[in-house]
# Entry
Amino acid sequence: MQTLAPSLSIGPIVLDAPIVQAALSGYSDRAMRVLARRHGAAYTIGEVLLDKFVVEAGASRRNRNRLSVDPEEHPVGGQLMGADPEQFPPAAVKLVEAGFDVIDINFGCPVKKVLGKCRGGFLLGVPETALEIVRRVRDAVPAALPVTLKMRRGIDDSAASTDKFWQIFEGAFAAGVAAITVHGRSVRQRYDGPSSWDFLREVKQAAGSRTIIGSGDLFSAPACLAMLEETGVDGVSIARGAIGNPWIFEGLRCLLAGQPLPAPPSLFAQADMLREHYGLAEELHGEELTCRVMRKFAIKYARLHPDHLGVRDAFVKVKTRADWMAVLARLYADDLPGRVPDDDIDETASCF
# Structure
């Protein structure tokens, strides 16, 4: 077994563990990111933002929330997605002004409506445009501030697609990106079938000392450790596996330290986490919106409860803060053992 690096470098930023919470469309707001940092993630990335939105965002609370950074969460990355190379630089500058420490560019989203607008994974098929975006962002932000990239292994499994992947990969590093996250599925694969860890191993071997972060099929701490050991990537980017399961970060830290994997959190520990997350969300979104925002998280948290279907159904019905706390009081009243959640196959939860 190889020796695993205890830290992860993204340009001048040195993290104390190779553990990243990925950008999660509709999920990784400031509340989720702060919670992840408190419970073991060394670095988090905000949900993907359209370049046009960032440039044109007004002063509404909702818009401010999406650009909001908490002092507790540094270092934190802001992720951009778009189609027009001219829109990226001003958007990147605005994210820097908002307090993000890294600018991450999304060339990985496989969602149909995103591809139809020539964004995300679509750009893996047009290396010239993709690399123009990378160069423009790198030139627009301070030299010491890292620019990173998200990629899938290509549009599909054709030789032409693979050639374009490597053209973008090498060109992006030549343009000055500090790290690249690679998801082991193709764009055409979306979220179906296994992520190719063999491809991740090939990428890391080609990258040498350059920083590569792996993504795909990371739904448990042991899976994260296995990716590090089997592929040699420098870090892991945990996406859907982190929704409603912040314990995945703590578990991976234990494994990296040579300690046993902790048991699934008891119901009291789950209730404490749910209260903590709700409080962070309420600070960000306000009382009226928080309950609606938190329902989608609660559905994921429910997977760790022994009566996960009943708990899920109860959370779906909540409409107020009082309803939320009543569910906790009723269904988390006894400190029963938790359960290991099933792998999450909800493809709407990520833009990788």
